[in-house]
Amino acid sequence: MLRVLLLTLPVVAIAYAELCKPDAQNAFKVRLSIKTALGDNAYAWDANEEYLFKAMVAFAMRRYSGKSTTQTSNVLLCNVTDRVSFWFVVTDSSKNVTTVPGSEVEAAIRMNRNRINSAFLLSDKTLQFLKITSTLSPPVEPSTPVWLIVFGVVLCLIVAGIVFLVVVGIQQRKKKNKESTERENLEEKGEATATVENGIPCETLDLKAGHINGVFAADDERFTSL
Fold this sequence. Notes:
Layout: H1 2-19, E1 28-32, H2 34-38, H3 47-65, E2 75-78, E3 85-90, H4 102-111, H5 113-119, E4 127-129, H6 146-192, E5 195-197, E6 200-202, H7 214-224
Antiparallel strand pairs: 1-3, 1-4, 2-3, 5-6
Helix pairs in contact: 3-4
Protein name: TMM27 protein
Transmembrane segments: 146-170
Membrane topology: Single-pass type I membrane protein
């Protein structure tokens, strides 16, 4: 029995090597930029991190398919580089010598992308699945409805217009009152000033009170008396 197991292990290893290799069918390349994302708090990529990655992929496959058959052993990693890039495939748990179709793996990764990113403290830009497009985050809904914002802007414009018209009206009224006062002062000043004709000052005729000529007044007294 032991001899059979020893003979089987190399065969399985060779089969796994054929399943997981660059550009293999249903294989995906992953690139991590841990130093770029975390700086001085960057962690080292080691066997523990590899196990966590396998566990997250197995979790994504379970959650996507609704089955609990996928294990960490079904996630194979290969061609791991020091700059933290590698390829991975997911094997079929029932056969274990074939891989899960890439479309299913892609759908599972896209469905759980945020959970995978959070596990490694990374984002879509620093944890890249090169053949899997990034998932778009749901649009952020404003706390204030759009119609209320538009209504507020229109209301502000109306109020500003009313204030502008009131201010302009007050200024024009003050200007008219000032011009009227200046005109009256000029008329009063003109009435009080004696006119000058041929260099001889003459009294201004008061049209309201009239003016009596002394010559005619003397004649009237002379002829009217009996």
